[in-house]
Write a structure and sequence with these properties.
Structural class of chain A: alpha/beta
CATH class of the largest domain in chain A: Alpha Beta
Largest interface: A-D, 54 and 52 residues
Oligomer: homotetramer
Helix content of chain A: 25-40%
Distance between the termini of chain A: 56 Å
CATH topology of the largest domain in chain A: Alpha-Beta Plaits
Number of strands of chain A: 15
Number of domains of chain A: 3
Strand content of chain A: 25-35%
């Protein structure tokens, strides 16, 4: 089985991929759209890409690539704790580090540590934390050190100056496993459904009305992020993770409500939640409640 | 065809009955529960009873009798303009009138006229406007005059002192035509659905949540009245007329939502609206919108 | 001190009056508007009238008389348990009772008992339970028995056939004590505020928006009743009891919101709740929370 | 007057700065936090930084830097149309371009054009579009071309191969002008207020309740973006632009409501809207409406 991922080797994304499938053939891609396109074109069965970071927020490239183009389906998620290692070429000392090549998100998550420990160091952005490590290892880097995942240290033969760097001790990144549309993962009772929804109009009332479609059916959201629709400033769509599976009645009812009320609803998958915490339906929102309600309404019509 | 109604002869209810069915055999009943019970027991095909007056509000006896006991179904409504005639026995002059025997609702609707024209006159409550007229005619009345419908004047051989008395020039009473459950009247595009709904809990939030079940499906209410549930002070149910027919998808969806959210929902009928004004569904709430939404959700499940 | 009340002597209203003020000079009035007018004109310091019954619902005459005309203020409430006594002239036996003269509300509250025990008995409506008793006592009654309060039995020298009749064992009636506008009763922590509110427009959304003014400030309603505005069928105002006192910040904020959003808001008083149950403000809605919020906003303006 | 901005010279941010203040001494900074810190420390009177792009969405570094640390105040906004120029060193032909050094946001906004015109070209991320141009000009670049603002072409003596590149023809970036807290800009009738709000709890209901604080006062939002609070996955705050000025009553009322309901509300300024479109208050939400409501409530308390 081939799985495309946001490369290069040695990133946290590779770590997520290995959690999902230890033995797959991993295909490193230069960016998120490329990884997703491999899945779209059938050159890889799945793609693993980051979607959300507890410090940096949504990963725009992923949110936008999933929301546009040939439909893809999220079939799983993996959550990876994030801490960085400050790496150098053998011989470089901490006090020599003036520039650090790493991905901007990594830099952002170590800002406070850098300010406290290397206040003069400047950030050199590179496409990934592993790319920084690779450049260091090759001797072609324009910077003195990197901030990368532990796995990259060994892979590139670098020296770890400091391990476990993270401004937020419990930082995590959430990755999604994506494929072309296929049979839905079976509901486990602890599931998520991911959607992209555009609003009918852009006032406070529009978002309010959209959220009420969830609230009246007792469906909670675990993530909501606005993304510009792109046609004009101030026009937003919303990327949403809702608790539950589309095989459940209340989620179907939410989706029907959104489909009627919103100019665009894109269903991006229902899949097991990484935390495995079972959703407890609010009173009146279990499948049995929906079925009883439908049976009752049908009985009214049979008079 | 036999139709029971709130008698005696000569009331506005009889007028409503005649509008609905000019040639039916009319069975006058002593009170609303009796009229409804005749329909329940099959001794009359229909019952015609007042449900709402534009001045006095809901008719409690009707609301409560419909809400309890063997289910009945509202199959039609009739709206009758209300104005009263001051009647006396031949020979009585306006200045002789010291007491007026009429139904309390009639009295309430002529209060200002009475204050302006017969300020000293006292009200003697009688069970119906026609009962007052009948008592006057029989010579057994303890009062000098009556306030009744025009039709009662001739029927009881009384003298009309003043016609068209009404504090509110456009006062009307709305009557419902009721039967045992039968085939629903066909939707006309201008329909009403009548419900009794109890709330899950009694806070502002409970009523709010109930109303949102209507609002998210774009269904308007033309009447909402609280009625005590009767078990303790401050516990209320709501008698509701909603615009639309249960054969319409959005109304079915509202009913399903209410059934899930509320401890009691009693469906009391879908029937043509007397005013014939067609309901214009809000965007996204037509039958076609519901069907398209359901088709879409089903397509998601077939992956 | 003179207090007007809905007479005649021997009614539950008199009982309420005595609870409120054992030694006042009680002035029995022929109907609710008359009692309220005595208070309006200063001929009585207070009026005591029924406003709500746990079985029959709101007392329309009171709701409407308070909502129109020269403003009055509710300064207190009294809750009286309701059970009736079947009274007759000495010598009449239960099996002789064919007609019962009582107020329609009393009749409604004993319907089941009557059906079970005197199924053939007919109701003769009289203006009050005590009027029925008085008529019986005077020998001029057209009926065989009365259903009245215990206090009326002795007062009119009648014989009690059955005591404690009530279809609902815990039925109560709530009375309000009313005066011309005066200094507000001091907040006790267990208070009610009574309002009449008209809606800006008549759709489900209008009532929803009105209720949200309460909900966003965490103010619960203990009673809400629709009353026709009277100009056309389907135009309703709402008579509301809200938990809390206008001296409290959150109630002031609700009132400001209603004043801005609704074409008519009539404040009818803040007064101690009869049950004495203290209101526990929802988080963020105490006076201290409001004051802190205002102080913060003012600090923003002082830059 | 000194103004710090997100450098280097030749970026769109410099263009925004010049629109705001043609003659200020412009201080280029290496990143957004640095520019904001110069303003915080008084070394610059203002800082100009991008906050929102019609294609890429919110600028996280700006949103987060404004939301944390010593408070800053937004005093103005500038909107700049965004189109890019493909630049090379003199002599490079379009067909020679294999790598393009530009900021990831610029790359994202030209993705489709690149795919259509230079499908084989790879992206080399650099800290800014101008940095790419500068590197090209210096001869030290590892890439063949840049995508930068028109102003940078001349400044760095480069050759423009293609002008006006933008996947979205009306793309704009919005910049804010920031200072330490000072006297608020005067309301113009066309203003925005920027806030950061954390939710009391994280369910759909929490966001719904927060939005209702705006909706009940008729205040529209022109931007809402979730930002992770950072303590755990799925905990979000919301960065909000609301229409109106804190000097207006309805905005003050919203802020008071948020302060009471939410664990954190950070006011980040009220300032003239770049589009100059005057806000039309919804019925019942003008300053006069608020003042009338307050006067009425005070009159109730003076009894």
């Amino acid at each position: 089985m081939r799985i495309a991922y946001l490369g290069p080797e040695g990133t946290f994304t590779e770590e997520a991929l290995r959690q999902y499938s230890p033995d797959a053939e991993a295909v490193a891609c230069v960016d998120v759209p490329t990884a997703l396109d491999l899945a779209r074109q059938g050159e890889a069965e799945f793609a693993v890409v980051p979607i959300e970071n507890s410090v940096e927020g949504g990963v725009n490239a992923t949110l936008d690539s999933l929301a546009h183009g040939t439909p893809l389906m999220i079939v799983g998620e993996v959550v990876v704790p994030i801490a960085f290692t400050l790496v150098v070429r053998p011989g470089t000392r901490l006090e020599d580090v003036r520039t650090v090549g790493t991905h901007p998100h990594a830099w952002a998550q170590c800002r406070r540590w850098m300010r406290d420990n290397l206040p003069a160091a400047l950030h050199v952005p590179v496409p990934s934390t592993a790319a920084g490590a690779a450049a260091l290892a090759s001797g072609e880097a324009e910077f003195d050190a990197g901030l990368c995942s532990r796995i990259a240290v060994d892979r590139y033969g670098l020296e770890a100056l400091v391990d476990g760097i993270a401004d937020t001790w419990n930082a995590v990144t959430r990755f999604v496993v994506v494929s072309t549309p296929r049979r839905l993962p079976r509901p486990t009772g602890a599931d998520k459904t991911t959607l992209m929804v555009h609003l009918a109009h852009n006032e406070a009332g529009g978002l309010l009305a959209m959220l009420q479609e969830f609230a009246v059916r007792g469906v909670n959201l675990s993530r909501i992020e606005s993304r510009p629709i792109g046609d004009t400033l101030g026009r937003y769509g919303f990327s949403i993770d809702a608790e539950g599976h589309v095989a459940e009645e209340r989620m179907q009812d939410v989706l029907m409500g959104l489909h009627r009320a919103c100019p665009l609803v894109r269903f991006m998958g229902s899949y097991p939640s990484a935390d495995g915490v079972r959703t407890r339906p609010a009173p009146g929102t279990s499948d049995a409640d929906f079925i009883a309600a439908r049976t009752w309404v049908r009985s009214l019509l049979q008079n």
